[in-house]
Amino acid sequence: DLKGKVESRLLSMWNNVKFGWTVKLKTSFSKESPVWLLGRCYHRKLSPSGSLESSTEIGTEATAQDPIEQIYGEGIEGFKSDFISRVWMTYRREFPTMSGSTFTTDCGWGCMLRSGQMLLAQALICHFLGRSWRWSPEKGIQNAREFQEDCLHRMIIKWFGDKSSVNSPLSIHQMVILGEVLGKKPGDWYGPASVAHCLNAVM
């Protein structure tokens, strides 16, 4: 047992060295260029009353009858609110061991599984809460509808908890168990097709 823990720790340290380096790249974004996020465009736009920021969605066009705040309402602040409302899942360490292994981290091999989890989480949030739903913990819950939305959001997050539990049916632990049918074991790299099969099976 001690040997397994040491091996797991060494592997985790190696993966942190191997995959933990980042290179800062110089960017050249223009403040006037639009920013797209999951089908929504956030940008600055001239309005009849001057320069305001706005957002539009694919498949929608602003008309003269639309309220001015609907046409020019969200802008870059809307982008920030939209961005922080997306579920982000990444490598983790020190979660409960996976079945039949000593792995307590997915660092270095779980990237595609995490990407699949994020795709599924986004789909579930859009399905249950809608594309326009925003997470705003600093605002607090104002009414029964917001309370219900908060409960749904928490429930979705809980489904992806990093543990082998009936309360977390979409966890990386569960996906690894499903991956065994495809000949995968904890620590193996998963490709997009493997993850798609796991997501199909888990749903």
Q: Report mean pLDDT, rounded to a whole number.
A: 80
What oligomerization state is this entry in? Answer: single chain
Order of helices and strands: HEEEHHHHHH
Radius of gyration: 21 Å
Percentage of residues in strands:
5-15%
Largest sheet report? 3 strands, antiparallel
> What structural class do helix, strand and pairing data support?
mainly alpha
Helix content: 40-55%
Strand order of the largest sheet: 1-2-3
| Total count of strands | 3
Distance between the amino and carboxyl termini: 34 Å
Number of helices: 7
What is the approximate shape? globular
Low-confidence stretches: 46-53, 62-73
Family: Belongs to the peptidase C54 family.
Function: Cysteine protease that plays a key role in autophagy by mediating both proteolytic activation and delipidation of ATG8 family proteins.
GO molecular function, one term: protein-phosphatidylethanolamide deconjugating activity
Catalytic activity: [protein]-C-terminal L-amino acid-glycyl-phosphatidylethanolamide + H2O = [protein]-C-terminal L-amino acid-glycine + a 1,2-diacyl-sn-glycero-3-phosphoethanolamine
Provide an overview of this structure.
This protein has 203 residues and is mainly alpha-helical. Helices cover 43% and strands 9% of the residues. It is built from 7 helices and 3 strands, in the order H-E-E-E-H-H-H-H-H-H. The protein has a 3-stranded antiparallel beta sheet. A hairpin with a 2-residue loop joins strand 1 and strand 2 (40-47). The relative contact order is 0.12. The model is unreliable at 46-53 and 62-73 (pLDDT under 50).
